[in-house]
């Protein structure tokens, strides 16, 4: 698959999306920052002059991230709608630059709250724009694989955060991370605006040049029938989008819109209430509560590596196996592993003899993380544009991501409290039950959207030649 991306036809799409994902790596670092750092902030060795933080403060450190995510989704949706996706992408660097300065200079938990809010702001922007950017520039035959790169890069950041948080001084990490948004700005400045955004502004010539860039066509003499067909289809689609009637309530009440919105909200809810984001955020606390005999520092790194393995597996085969199949496999794996983790916690809490099985929670967590990487965590970005009708795709995606951030706020706020009050087993069983319900919805309601044409609502026959 990688060799295919680096072929003459696809390599610019591949490199462009990887350039955009430099900021996504930084976002991944902010996601994983809490796992090794929160136990440190709660300990007697806390770097904060005010002393260790409380469980209540821990819950706010987690949930401020999601408040920022809700704000960022709306803010960046407006920016890319009125100013274009390139401008919106470039502006993702601003909150990222500020948050690392806050963590570098901050000496109280309130600086951390502000930094977490800005980290969420960046994340909201990423989820609001990057899937649409991928949909704008990617060939539909590889759209799923390119879409899965978002979670892959987040998990590279997660691995870096889990590693650095355990071995580098608290105030050194922000200094290093300031380099990332600067590199992101330098790379994204070199990319053209997407063809769709340029066509919406009436810049037909620039739009054609942009599509030629992303399809790696060096000059007009190399244009093929397939390229001409694609560009004409895109012009027709964009013109219909510009000239169409304004959205009304009726547009959201059609059978296709209702089903698309339901599936979008369902995928977002599953992404959060399966517990995977909370587990990644509070992994250090969960491992401590499990009482594993393994060194938590190494387990955190192993979790991040397994997470990447799950994403790579999905990246390689998702465009062959299909979205529905992989999401089903992922949900079953997450549900079963959470059930096992809950059972171990229940028996170890009531039976001291279970101490000898302290490897079980680590294995269950690793299985959980790998299973989630196959589908639950990485299909959010590209399934939603595929299930929503074209007319409500933009606003529907925004609504879905805002709800994702709201669900994340709820789960990150309550998870530390649940872990303290109903222990690991009660918390894990709740998330496992969510997965059980989700399995039924995936089987009986969710359609397969692999290879769906995003320009036309119904599949359109293309010229047989597909060579560029």
TrEMBL record:
Record keyword Plastid present: no
InterPro entries xref list: MFS_dom (IPR020846), MFS_sugar_transport-like (IPR005828), MFS_trans_sf (IPR036259), MFS_Trehalose_Transporter (IPR050549), Sugar_transporter_CS (IPR005829)
Source species, domain of life: Eukaryota
GO cellular component terms, semicolon-separated: plasma membrane
Domain Major facilitator superfamily (MFS) profile: 14-450
Topology versus the membrane: Multi-pass membrane protein
Keywords: Cell membrane, Membrane, Sugar transport, Transmembrane, Transmembrane helix, Transport
Pfam family, one: Sugar_tr
GO MF term list: transmembrane transporter activity
Localization terms from the record: Cell membrane
Designated name of the protein: Major facilitator superfamily (MFS) profile domain-containing protein
Natural source organism: Aedes aegypti
């Amino acid at each position: 698959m990688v060799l295919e991306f680096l072929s003459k036809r696809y390599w610019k799409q591949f490199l462009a999306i990887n350039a955009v994902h430099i900021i996504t790596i930084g976002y991944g670092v902010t996601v994983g920052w809490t796992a090794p750092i929160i136990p440190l902030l709660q300990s007697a060795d806390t770097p904060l002059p005010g002393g260790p933080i409380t469980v209540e403060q821990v819950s706010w450190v987690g949930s401020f991230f999601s408040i920022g995510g809700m704000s960022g989704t709306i803010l960046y949706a407006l920016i890319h709608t009125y100013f274009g996706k390139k401008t919106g992408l470039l502006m993702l660097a601003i909150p990222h630059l500020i948050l690392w300065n806050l963590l570098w200079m901050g000496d109280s938990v309130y600086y951390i709250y502000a930094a977490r809010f800005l980290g969420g702001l960046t994340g909201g922007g990423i989820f609001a724009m990057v899937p649409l950017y991928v949909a704008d520039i990617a060939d539909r035959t590889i759209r799923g694989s390119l879409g899965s790169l978002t979670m892959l890069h987040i998990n590279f950041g997660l691995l870096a955060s889990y590693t650095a948080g355990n071995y580098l001084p608290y105030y050194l990490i922000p200094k290093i991370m300031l380099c990332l948004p600067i590199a992101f700005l330098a790379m994204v400045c070199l990319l053209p605006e997407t063809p769709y955004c340029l066509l919406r502004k009436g810049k037909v010539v620039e739009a054609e040049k942009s599509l030629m860039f992303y399809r790696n066509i060096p000059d007009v003499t190399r244009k093929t029938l397939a390229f001409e067909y694609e560009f004409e289809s895109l012009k027709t689609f964009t013109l219909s989008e510009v000239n169409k009637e304004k959205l009304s309530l009726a547009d959201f009440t059609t059978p296709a819109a209702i089903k698309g919105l339901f599936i979008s909200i369902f995928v977002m809810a599953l992404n959060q209430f399966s517990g995977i984001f909370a587990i990644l955020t509070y992994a250090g606390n969960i491992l401590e509560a499990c009482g594993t005999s393994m060194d938590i520092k190494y387990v955190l790194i192993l979790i991040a590596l397994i997470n990447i393995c799950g994403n790579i597996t999905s990246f390689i085969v998702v465009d062959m196996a299909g979205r529905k199949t992989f999401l089903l496999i992922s949900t079953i794996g997450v549900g079963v592993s959470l059930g096992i983790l809950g059972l171990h916690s229940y028996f170890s809490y009531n039976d001291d003899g279970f101490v000898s099985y302290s490897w079980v929670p680590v294995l269950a967590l690793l299985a959980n993380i790998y299973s989630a990487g196959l589908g639950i965590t990485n299909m959010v970005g590209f399934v939603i544009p595929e299930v929503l009708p074209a007319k409500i795709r933009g606003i529907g995606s925004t609504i879905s991501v805002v709800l994702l951030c709201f669900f994340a706020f709820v789960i990150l706020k309550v998870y530390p409290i649940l872990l303290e009050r109903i222990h690991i087993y009660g918390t894990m069983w709740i998330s496992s039950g969510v997965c059980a319900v989700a399995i039924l919805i995936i089987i009986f309601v969710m359609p397969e959207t692999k290879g769906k044409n995003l320009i036309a609502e119904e599949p359109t026959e293309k010229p047989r030649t597909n060579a560029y």
